[in-house]
């Protein structure tokens, strides 16, 4: 059980905080609700008290003998602000403390998660953008607003995500840090193999699964280094970010940063081949019918190389996790090829998923099977890529 402070600021989305409160209580957590003064215009204190089982106030002069504005923050394992209005974000960013909630935000040393909700113009205003950036720099986890219907006829970014989604996003804060202090190196995204100054050979990887792995590992208490090739999503806050582009650059980055790590997760989609030569000028269409002939050479198998090098280098990670994007055919299933690849690569864990034009690459969800070199029973992982990432992280935590 965690002790949670649920701050609620005055916006129409305050009604969703009631549903989030119910989810937190049903999960067995102790919740103290702190509304701002005007929340009562949307949801009354009686509702919060009935669902939380605790008294509710926004006044720093209530229960003065317990010094509430300090005590609640000091005792909390997590402080949530749902919804966080533009006004609340501004106060938190500038350190104002004119009520019980903002005082608690200053007093707490616990993780702070805020879920902003407001009209699009307010969310995109430079002042709000600057306040959000400031809070993130201080370690506050800002849950991005959803895009959808707002109050009245407006629609756009600024909608509070559904309570179930917020509940899912904070799961890592509600569980014990199973990888506390462990050093994890993760590769993510798809490599690009240059052909000429403007063209490259690439793949469909968006980097979403690798970014989710970095987030899940960070939330599990690990010290995370993320080697990103080409991502379509932002890297999570709180990780060390290293950039690479081609397979050869990725290989160099892996061998540079892998020594001293406890775990290496090779999630990046590495091109198997690259052009044998890179043209210094853009390849031209010389006539209406001809086309260039591009000679390809194999790229190094980075995963296999690291596993092989580990035999003579004790500084390389003791636990190496590979990913295999597979398709089945007449000669074998996805898992048949996955098991063969696990044996060939020599890593301890291999995560296998079926891919296709609309499967896995670029999608928000994933469906994977986790295979173990020691013969342990395979584990399935399905759902959002963050859910899959958490399953993978929990499995490797058991293996360390």
Describe the protein in words.
The chain is an alpha/beta fold and 400 residues long. It has two domains: 172 residues, Flavin prenyltransferase-like (Rossmann fold, 3-Layer(aba) Sandwich); 217 residues, CoaB-like (Rossmann fold, 3-Layer(aba) Sandwich), CATH 3.40.50. The chain is built from 14 helices and 19 strands. Strands 12-11-8-13-16-17-18-19 form an eight-stranded mixed beta sheet, with helices on both faces. Strands 2-1-3-4-5 form a five-stranded parallel beta sheet, sandwiched between helices. Strand 9 and strand 10 form a beta hairpin. Helix 1 runs parallel beside helix 2 and helix 3 packs across helix 5. The longest helix has 15 residues. The radius of gyration is 25 Å and the shape is elongated.
- How would you characterize the largest beta sheet? 8 strands, mixed
Structural class call reads: alpha/beta
Give the termini separation. Answer: 25 Å
Range of helix content: 25-40%
Number of self-contained structural domains: 2
User: Would you identify the regions where 5 or more consecutive residues have pLDDT less than 50?
Assistant: none
Strand content: 15-25%
CATH topology of the largest domain: the name is Rossmann fold
Our Rg estimate from Cα atoms comes to 25 Å
Number of helices: 14
Which architecture of the largest domain does the CATH hierarchy give at level 2? 3-Layer(aba) Sandwich
Question: How many strands appear in the DSSP assignment?
Answer: 19
* Shape field: elongated
What's the CATH first level of the largest domain?
A: Alpha Beta
pLDDT averaged over residues? 92
Strand order of the largest sheet: 12-11-8-13-16-17-18-19
Fourth CATH level, the homologous superfamily of the largest domain:
CoaB-like
């Amino acid at each position: 059980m965690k002790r949670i402070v649920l701050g609620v600021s005055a916006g129409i989305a305050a009604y969703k905080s009631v549903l989030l409160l119910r989810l937190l209580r049903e999960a067995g957590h102790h919740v103290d609700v702190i509304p701002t003064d005007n929340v009562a215009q949307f949801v009354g204190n009686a509702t919060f008290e009935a669902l939380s089982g605790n008294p509710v106030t926004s006044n720093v002069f209530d229960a003065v003998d317990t010094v509430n504005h300090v005590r609640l923050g000091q005792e909390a394992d997590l402080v949530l602000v749902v919804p966080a209005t533009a006004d609340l974000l501004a106060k938190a960013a500038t350190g104002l403390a004119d009520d019980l909630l903002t005082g608690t935000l200053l007093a707490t040393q616990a993780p702070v998660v805020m879920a902003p909700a407001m009209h699009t113009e307010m969310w995109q205003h430079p002042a709000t953008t600057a306040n959000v950036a400031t809070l993130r720099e201080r370690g506050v986890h800002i849950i991005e607003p959803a895009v959808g219907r707002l109050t009245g006829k407006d629609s756009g970014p600024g909608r509070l995500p559904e309570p179930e989604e917020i509940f899912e996003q904070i799961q890592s804060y509600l569980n014990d840090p199973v990888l506390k202090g462990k050093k994890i190196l993760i590769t993510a995204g798809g490599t690009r193999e240059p052909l000429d100054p403007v063209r490259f050979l690439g793949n469909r990887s968006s980097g979403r699964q690798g970014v989710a792995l970095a987030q899940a590992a960070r939330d599990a208490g690990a010290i995370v280094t993320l080697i990103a090739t080409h991502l379509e999503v932002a890297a999570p806050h709180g990780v060390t970010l290293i950039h690479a582009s081609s397979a050869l650059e990725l290989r160099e980055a892996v061998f540079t940063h892998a020594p001293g790590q406890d775990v290496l997760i090779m999630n990046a989609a590495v091109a198997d081949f690259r052009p044998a030569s890179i043209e210094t000028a853009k390849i031209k269409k010389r006539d209406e019918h001809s086309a260039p002939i591009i000679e390809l050479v194999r790229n190094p198998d980075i995963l296999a190389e690291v596993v092989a090098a580990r035999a003579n280098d004790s500084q390389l990670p003791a636990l190496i996790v590979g990913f295999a994007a597979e398709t089945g055919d007449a000669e074998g299933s996805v898992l048949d090829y996955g098991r063969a690849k696990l044996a060939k690569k020599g890593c301890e864990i291999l995560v296998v998923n079926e891919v296709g034009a609309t499967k896995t690459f670029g999608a928000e969800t994933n469906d994977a099977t986790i295979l173990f070199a020691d013969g342990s029973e395979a584990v399935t992982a399905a759902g959002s890529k963050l859910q899959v990432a958490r399953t993978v992280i929990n499995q490797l935590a058991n293996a360390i």
